[in-house]
Amino acid sequence: MNLRARAVIVGGGVMGTSIAYHLARAGVRDVVLVERDELGAGSTSRAAGGVRAQFSDELNIQLGARSLEAFGRFEEEIGQDIGLHRVGYLFLLSTPEQVASFEAGVRLQNSLGVPSRMLTPAEALRLSPLIRTDGLLAAGYSPDDGHCTPEAVVQGYATAARARGARILRHTEVTGIERDGTTVTAVTTTRGRITTGTVICAAGAWSRAVGALAGVDLPVRPLRRQIAVTEPVHGLPPALPMTIDFTTSLYFHAEGPGLLLGMSDPDERPGFATDTHDRWIPRLCEAMRRRAPALLELRRTGGWAGLYENTPDHNALIGEASSVSRFLYATGFSGHGFLQGPAVGEIVRDLYLGRVPFLDVSPLSAGRFAADAPRPEANLV
Fold it and tell me: pTM for the complete prediction?
């Protein structure tokens, strides 16, 4: 294989396929997406599928809200049913500090058009009757949030990108990025060489290695996160929100007739392992006992592990490298990449075309760490 491309996208998850679709739809010819496995086989297929705009950072609020609009019209625009359930996100708050932080967040979200609001514990219980309210002070809620099926989003974007001329190479690994000085000239792969002047890194947890091929530092570290699925639950409310105990990060939402649930594990260490283990279960059970004891009665019927792509401030890296011309990146989303995929695809398209994006994402440049200008996100799950 010896191809020529206007742009080579590395990574076939939601971010890569969204970028491919938005470039192809804008009329960019000879877009090539390279994925070393199946599409979505990395972090996207292992995500919990949550979509929201309830963030503390103004940029994340806007990225989330823009993406929610795109998810809402996805089937009409792309032609793919993504199983979107607009059931809301419900953050359960147990300390005065959490309440004050979410009150400030709601004010900011409302100013940007997001219909979030604060709820009393009794109101939260009516929405999510599996919880207990002992020690609960308040909750943050937005009805526009929800969850959908990550694999369906990837396949929808990929199909629509191909229909508009993009080429997708599966089971093809990037082995090198050639440069002439500071200019990208080609990408080498296990199937041959692709002559190109632009590389777009959307490789998720593997982005640091891709950046290193071009001499670009992308400070991304992989961290395993686990998800469990339960047996059917009788009497689940049809609009059960994605429910998060903010103190412990325990979360759950309906998954078919049962529940999908997960929680962060502070004992987990960075690495690429995605096998499952039970070391997190005692801490998970303690969190359920405290906030949702009804979950303790449910039998686990399955589960999986995937990778977060964490940055030092738990916020995304979006932009173009300052040291290498036409090396663009969209990575390091630290758990909120899937839900921002549609909006980021738009932004990377505009950065490639030299247009002004709908949102100035320059504060999310990878160079912010060298400049000692981190941009932390507080509303993490």
Answer: 0.97
Please tell me whether residues 116 and 29 are part of one structural domain.
no
**Averaged pLDDT of the chain:** 97
Q: How many domains does the chain have?
A: 2
Q: Which residues pair with 261 in a beta bridge?
A: 228, 252
Output the pLDDT for position 241. 98
Helix axes 14-25, 337-353, angle to 10 degrees: 40
Q: How far is CA 41 from CA 13, 149, 154, 206, 306, in A?
A: 7, 14, 10, 13, 10
What CATH code is carried by the domain that includes residue 287? 3.30.9.10
pLDDT digits (tens, 9 = 90+) for 312-361: 999 999 999 999 999 999 999 999 999 999 999 999 999 999 999 999 99
267: containing domain: 89-143+222-310
Helix (H) or strand (E) holding 32: strand 31-34
> Same structural domain for residues 303 and 166?
no
- Are 240 and 294 contained in the same domain? yes
CA distances in angstroms from 103 to 45, 93, 140, 250, listed in the order given: 33, 11, 8, 21
